[in-house]
Target: Short integuments 2, mitochondrial
Amino acid sequence: MKLKEVIRKEPTLLVMVVGVPNVGKSALINSIHQIAHSRFPVQEKRKRAAVGPLPGVTQDIAGFKIAHKPSIYVLDTPGVLVPSISDIETGLKLALAGGVKDSVVGEERIAQYLLAVLDTRGTPLHWKLLNNRRINGIECEAEENHEYSLKNLKSKRRNLPNRCDLVYAEDIVTEVQHALYSTLSEFNGNVEDENDLERLIDLQFGALQKALKIPHKASEARLIVPYSIQDW
Model:
């Protein structure tokens, strides 16, 4: 039954969730819907709002019933943004937060902006005590060899990670933290100077290439690093 027909037949309260793209509107609605369904089970088949890691998954307005007597529907809506973004930094922030597709701004440019923000705030210097953080008491098989290409970096549906996956992820994060901490702490330039900051970021790209075990001869290495650091 369409939502318009429901509204005509019974008193109905509509709640609309609105926000920028990829901010978690659909995920929030699914959580509300799940809680409502568990507390007030009904015979109707429970729908789920489509979610994904990229903006633009929700294309149309959809209603999800979360209460009966009175009927309450929460409406999922496509993300909204201003027609144009004239401020470059605002565009970079939106891209970094996943509000616009990476390809609109450029993956390498987003990664450079992220590193610039971390460096100017001195964030990596606070990671010194985290470099030795490990998950102990877990034995895992040796990691398999990976082929590094842009195809392997596309988002895929995954099963729940096992304990070895968590250890591997922890190791990767630690290596990335160590690479950024080392390059920033050893850097003798001024991060407030644009030229010096660009030089530091180039050094960090090289350090991250080693930390992420990207082959030096990989033709796509300069692109793989931005993809990878946005994932963690």
